[in-house]
Amino acid sequence: MTLEPEVASASVAPGANIRLKLRLVNVSDHTVSVRTQLPYGGELIVTTDKGVKIAPPEGSAVTLRDPACARMSYSHMEVQRGVVVALLPGGVIEDLVEWQASRMAWPPPKKDGTCYPKTILPVAKGPLPAGKYSVVATPRIWSEPSWLEPNIATDVMVK
To answer: At 67, phi and psi to the nearest 5?
Structure first.
């Protein structure tokens, strides 16, 4: 499994976006049934070359719910991202993940007007300084008998 820049250069300007290709390859000699939940940009783990964590930001996102929502149960809901595929030997699943070379923070809490859970993404709070950053994606991959969560990393130069 690899995570690599979509373009030949692994560099990006401060505050700009770079598209990274997430590539999963079946290196076994048999067909594997795979359910993927591929990460998006807000789920990437980013550290400096000195191991200082940049993203995701500390803490967690907050959504102010309507008090009427407290009576609702979400146990019947299953939110799925991704697909189920039969991955042949040598088969490949690819997806692009966009990363912004910015400091990130959770948006301020706000009412979202609905009782359904939503994914809240961090927002940019200014460009990252020049330097080398490690960007890690952790896709969730279902392959009997359990979920696999490999860390797939690449280095990106911000300059």
So the answer is: -55, -30
> Which positions ≥6 away from 53 have C-beta within 8 Å?
45, 46, 47
CA distance 16 to 146: 37
Strands 63-64 and 110-111: parallel
Q: How many CA atoms lie within 13 A of 57 on its CB side?
A: 16
Nearest to 100 by CA among 54, 60, 61: 54
Pair of tokens at residue 77: 């809901």
Give the whole-angstrom CA distance, residue 136 versus residue 44: 6
Q: Are 14 and 128 in contact (CB under 8 A)?
A: yes
Condensed to tens digits (0 to 9), the pLDDT of residues 97-144 reads 889 999 999 888 776 666 766 677 788 999 999 999 999 988 877 777
Cis peptide before 56 (omega within 30 of 0): yes
What residues does 111 pair with on adjacent strands?
A: 64
d(CA 100, CA 59): 20
For 85-105, what is each residue's pLDDT tens digit?
Answer: 788 888 888 888 889 999 999
